[in-house]
Design goal:
The chain has 342 residues and is of the alpha/beta class. It is built from twelve helices and twelve strands.
């Protein structure tokens, strides 16, 4: 049987419910997996009506048995009972921010208990999350805290290229401080292990330089490449991993798209996110790798789009791609049998 995948609605004031409703209306989604929505059933029903869907919603509380087998036209929604279906769209809301956190927390509990095979998340809003009392930069950091994971990383995937990050949601000066040989080695290993689990035999991993032209042999910067990157690359190569670099970032992404490498290691947020979003903003997928318990989490690579929320025009291709990656990366021995208690 296909894997059970938990899809969290994210911030219900944004486009998360709409793109989820569109994905649930497509037969292809059920060819890939058996989706279980974790979120507010009222918000999902409103989104279904906005996008013209016709599926039935079967709600249950966390810990209760799933009421039906998820098949086309029959949607299971694990609803914590926060009653967010009538909340105003397109505005920052503390209630919606708290709801987004709760949806993710419940999905993580389900995954840690082996009751779903993977998690796929719709976007949350950071201001709403903070207003709701949860001081995290985003999904990735919440997931790391909930699973008590220290070694993790953000990977972005598009049809043309994959990028994994040494640092993400910190300022540029802090990002450089946080890069160490150990972190470089750690992220290279995470990239290797993730792609190997997905079927790659010997993934080719290329590491970006920190400075222009990867430092140009010390001409630019203060030797950060030699100090922070090269020892980690050499340690990975000593383990038999096909890692190389540091390479100049201004040409490396072109080479990766050309097919020279399977994944690029970016040093900081914009170095990796910029090329990915230029290439494939609507189909990019955010993957959290390295979580304890082998939990797989994928997500859209876009925000809540408050400016168009509730209008029924949000595109759902990124969520569809995230669902595909979740199904591909889900452990084969987890949550593939008949539905059971959440």
């Amino acid at each position: 049987m296909t894997p059970l995948i938990a899809i969290t609605l994210g911030d219900v004031c944004g486009i998360g419910p709409e793109i989820t409703a569109r994905s649930l209306a497509e037969t292809e989604t059920y060819d890939l997996c058996r989706p279980i929505v974790v979120g507010d059933a009222g918000a999902l029903a409103r989104a279904r009506d906005v996008v013209g869907g016709s599926f039935e919603i079967h709600a249950c509380r966390p810990g209760e048995p799933f009421p039906v087998e998820p098949v086309p036209g029959e949607v299971v929604c694990v609803d914590p009972g926060l009653d967010l279906g009538g909340i105003e769209m397109g505005k920052v809301s503390a209630a919606a921010g708290h709801g987004a956190y709760e949806f993710l927390r419940i999905a993580v509990e389900m995954a840690m208990a082996g009751k779903v095979a993977a998690i796929c998340t719709a976007p949350l809003n950071k201001a709403a999350l903070h207003a709701g009392g949860h001081r995290f930069p985003g999904h990735t950091e919440i997931l790391a805290t909930l699973t008590e994971t220290d070694s993790y990383a953000m990977m972005l995937a598009t049809p043309q290229m994959k990028v994994i990050h040494l640092t993400t949601h910190v300022g540029l000066l802090e990002a450089v401080r946080r890069i160490t040989p150990e972190r470089t080695h750690q992220v290279i290993r995470l990239a290797h292990d993730t792609l190997t689990a997905a079927g790659a035999e010997a993934p080719r991993i290329a590491v970006c330089g920190i400075n222009p032209h990867a430092g140009e042999d010390g001409l630019f910067g203060e030797g950060e490449e030699a100090e922070k990157l090269t020892p980690g690359i050499e340690a990975a190569r000593a383990e038999g991993i096909d890692a190389s670099g540091p390479w100049p970032a201004d040409t490396l992404f072109f080479r990766a798209v050309r097919g020279d490498f399977d994944v690029v290691v970016a040093c900081y947020h914009d170095q990796g996110h910029g090329p990915v979003k230029v290439l494939s903003l609507e189909e990019g997928v955010n993957i959290t790798v390295g979580l304890k318990g082998g939990i797989v989490r994928t997500s859209v690579d876009h925000g809540t789009a408050f400016d168009i929320a509730g209008q029924g025009i949000a595109k759902h291709e990124s969520l569809g791609a995230a669902i595909r990656y979740a199904a591909q990366l889900a452990p084969a021995d987890r949550a593939t049998g008949p539905v059971r208690a959440a």
